[in-house]
Amino acid sequence: MVVELVDSQETPMGMGERLQGVIQPAVLNALYRATGTRVRRLPVDLTVHG
Hints:
By secondary structure, this protein is mainly alpha-helical. The protein has one helix and no strands. The longest helix has 16 residues, at about 20-35. It is elongated and about 45 Å long.
């Protein structure tokens, strides 16, 4: 991966947005392995109830 900073008048965006498609499934699979519950919607609510 090559990162280049370019002057622009465009609205700034996050640099990691392109990686979301790769990272999200891995994180959700890790949550499934840890909890046994499959996450079907994003964002994930990790609030502990009970």
